[in-house]
Amino acid sequence: YCVLGFEVDTVNSVQFSNHTGYDHWTGQVMTANELHTLYDGLKLNGVNRYDYVLTGYTRDASFLEMVVDIIRELKCQNPNLVYVCDPVMGDQRNGDGYMYVPEHLLPVYKEKVVPVADIITPNQYEAEILAGKKMNTEKEALEVMDLLHAMGPETVVITSSDLPSSLGKDYLIALGSLRKIKADGTLVKERIRMEIPKVDAVFVGTGDLFTAMLLAWTHTHPNNLKMACEKTASALQHIVRRTINHARGKEPGMWVGGGMLGWGGGTWDGWGGLHCWVVGCRVGWGGCSAEGSVRH
Ligand SMILES: Nc1ncnc2c1ncn2[C@@H]1O[C@H](COP(=O)(O)OP(=O)(O)O)[C@@H](O)[C@H]1O
Ligand SMILES: Cc1ncc(COP(=O)(O)O)c(CN)c1O
């Protein structure tokens, strides 16, 4: 189906009853073999040419390794392919970080996945464990982003952090860094900081949505990370606000669903012809979070 002008092929990396923030969850974790079988089908038909690949939540190390093998092959098919990786591993609450996927995935992300990624979107905790360095100040955050660039990706966006905002405690900080070596050898560096008004609730799936939106907006603004991030954050802000208003009963009749991706302004039609392959799961449905809109 077509989302924001992208024709998207989806592959489940897990198939769960609900996201893992619930007390219980059941379902299947996809294996490397199952992924390979699907990829083989695409190859046999000669339809394995993609412009973008986006990966999200994964629980299986060999599945991740297979993703890397496939990315390498897809990059041979299309050297301009952009791989957007959301290294979904964990989060922090009240300053304490924790992993919600098996810990042995960290070295696979670090040594194999991040090096082939063009854009990564960790949260603060994920950025810190990938870089092996804490970020308590903005200066340290910039150092962490440089360490992540050195691992491979030319675009790093830290989707949320608890760094202090000059606007007060009701704002969360997101940071972005674009580091590009141009054909003539010059280094282009763009750093951005976004202060995002906090909604007093915990959302699940917003990181996934952020990454999907960033993919779409960096396509429109490939050399303007500020613009891409602003449009992404704008959509997120609209969605979390409408979601919370709905949950509090202020917006009757609103459906938290895939169609919500249409908010945030801009013209999202008519891009046509782009192929995007998304490896990730659908993060559940129903409930009062933004998750319904993350139907990669
Ligand atoms: N409580 C919130 N208030 C406002 N915006 C939020 C909130 N939680 C998430 N967001 C939005 O979602 C984006 C991703 O944040 P988050 O879900 O914390 O990332 P991650 O899943 O990577 O930890 C943020 O940049 C912000 O735009
Ligand atoms: C199945 C699944 N997918 C994705 C996520 C990531 O959610 P978020 O976008 O909020 O980082 C989670 C978080 N627990 C999850 O359980």
TrEMBL record:
One of its GO terms (molecular function) is ATP binding. InterPro entries: PM/HMP-P_kinase-1, PyrdxlKinase, Ribokinase-like. Pfam families: Phos_pyr_kin (PF08543). Its EC number is 2.7.1.35. It catalyses: pyridoxal + ATP = pyridoxal 5'-phosphate + ADP + H(+); pyridoxine + ATP = pyridoxine 5'-phosphate + ADP + H(+); pyridoxamine + ATP = pyridoxamine 5'-phosphate + ADP + H(+). Keywords: ATP-binding, Kinase, Nucleotide-binding, Transferase. Residues 53-252 form the Pyridoxamine kinase/Phosphomethylpyrimidine kinase domain. One of its GO terms (cellular component) is cytosol. Gene3D superfamilies: 3.40.1190.20. One of its GO terms (biological process) is pyridoxal 5'-phosphate salvage. Pathway: Cofactor metabolism; pyridoxal 5'-phosphate salvage; pyridoxal 5'-phosphate from pyridoxal: step 1/1; Cofactor metabolism; pyridoxal 5'-phosphate salvage; pyridoxine 5'-phosphate from pyridoxine: step 1/1; Cofactor metabolism; pyridoxal 5'-phosphate salvage; pyridoxamine 5'-phosphate from pyridoxamine: step 1/1. Belongs to the pyridoxine kinase family. Catalyzes the phosphorylation of the dietary vitamin B6 vitamers pyridoxal (PL), pyridoxine (PN) and pyridoxamine (PM) to form pyridoxal 5'-phosphate (PLP), pyridoxine 5'-phosphate (PNP) and pyridoxamine 5'-phosphate (PMP), respectively. PLP is the active form of vitamin B6, and acts as a cofactor for over 140 different enzymatic reactions. This is Pyridoxal kinase. The lineage of its organism: Eukaryota, Metazoa, Chordata, Craniata, Vertebrata.
